[in-house]
Design a protein that fits this description.
The protein is of the alpha/beta class. The chain is globular and about 65 Å long. The protein folds into three domains: about 170 residues, 3-Layer(bba) Sandwich (FAD/NAD(P)-binding domain), CATH 3.50.50.60; about 55 residues, no CATH class; about 80 residues, D-Amino Acid Oxidase, Chain A, domain 2. The protein contains twelve helices and 18 strands.
């Protein structure tokens, strides 16, 4: 199909971290790609992401997801270097290792039990181990007296989600076309697919739905299944501080510019992205108990974002059987999995092998579980 006008070979709908990574990877396979970006606010999860590249604890009862997360983390060094070289923008990625800090013996016991279960499944616990209080203090001298221990994984790290997205979007115009359009419908036709919106239409030989929560409305018309729900998470950010934390933790991290981010709330609040004082208080209290030096830091910003959650929290990768050439890619780990979405997942789509390479992430699992 010609690239003339608004026609393309592959259209990727959704220009957040998932869609941008897929578009970049697909373009590198030689495909002619159009990335369709919403013209208005559409609950972008990318703008509210905490920024962890995380392996530990993932995949309990789901070894394929544990393996996916580990491959993604291992690919981030090359992915970050590629983005920095291609765009001139560093995604500020550092593989620091990661800590899940326990503030009570009960918390540490639960973490230890989960780790034991992970050890007993294929792939193991991805080198994660339990640290006692003394080992944790040796790693983090500024840790508070309430911390009794932690789980540590050497594969964990963190990156700046907005810099990562900006780097990909800076690189894309040289490799793919970007179309600003609020998509209202995607429908199959004899020669491919038609993507319709208030700002026009795009025709494509193939189409990839990567629109986050928007996939729930677009998927059924293509014979795809996207049972997704929003999960609200709130984040607090401090002023720039001297170096305080040189390792990522699951709910506190210091960014490349010195600010400290605090978060990890999980709320069922529908599509409400408002912040609440009660949750902010819980986040700040836990952060200060972990790192007492934060008690004197000034908060400069707070926000809430919506995670894209499937029923089991795992990604959904699906190729339509009723409308060949239509694909669905959705997950809540857009930062961690970005290296794979720009790599092996994009190649699987280009080769029409998404289902055969990732059968564990088919939405058919939900029917089987029921």
């Amino acid at each position: 199909m010609s690239m003339a006008g608004d026609s393309t070979e592959i259209a990727v709908i959704g220009a957040g971290l998932v869609g941008s990574a897929l578009a970049l990877g697909l373009a590198r396979t030689g495909a002619r790609v159009t990335l369709v970006d919403a013209a208005t606010d559409d609950f972008h999860a990318s703008a509210a992401n905490f920024g962890l590249v995380w392996v530990q604890g993932k995949g309990l009862g789901a070894p394929d997801y544990a393996g996916l997360s580990l491959r993604a983390a291992q690919g981030w060094d090359g992915f970050a270097a590629d983005l920095a070289q291609g765009s001139g923008i560093s995604p500020a990625y550092r593989r620091t290792g990661g800590l899940r800090i326990a503030l009570s013996e009960a918390e540490l016991d639960r973490t230890r039990a989960d780790l034991a279960r992970l050890h007993n499944q294929p792939g193991g616990a991805q080198d994660t181990r339990i640290l006692d209080r003394d080992a944790l203090r040796a790693m983090l001298p500024g840790i508070g007296p309430a911390a009794v221990g932690a789980a540590y994984c050497p594969h964990d790290g963190h990156a700046d989600p907005l810099r990562t997205l900006r780097a990909m979007r800076t690189m894309l115009p040289a490799q793919a076309r970007i179309k600003a359009m609020q998509v209202t419908r995607v429908r199959p036709e004899a020669s491919g697919f038609v993507i319709e919106g208030g700002e026009g239409r795009v025709t494509a030989d193939r189409v990839v739905l990567a629109a986050g929560l928007g996939n729930a409305d677009l998927a059924p018309g293509l014979g795809l299944h996207a049972p997704l729900r929003p999960q609200r998470g709130q984040i607090l950010v401090t002023e720039r501080l001297p170096p305080l934390l040189d390792i990522a933790t699951h709910n506190v991290r210091q960014t490349a510019d010195g600010t400290v981010m605090m978060g990890d709330s999980k709320e069922d609040a529908g599509f409400d992205r408002g912040t609440t004082q009660s949750v902010a208080h819980k986040i700040a209290t836990r952060a200060v108990r972990s790192f007492p030096a934060l008690a004197h830091a000034r908060l400069v910003r707070s926000w809430a974002g919506l995670r894209v959650m499937s029923p089991d929290g795992l990604p959904i990768y699906e190729a339509s059987t009723s409308n060949p050439g239509a694909y669905l890619v959705t997950c809540h780990s857009g930062v961690t999995l970005a290296s794979l979405h720009a790599g092996e997942v994009a190649r699987a789509i280009a080769e029409d092998a998404l289902h055969s390479r990732y059968p564990a992430f088919s939405p058919a699992r939900f029917a089987e579980a029921a």
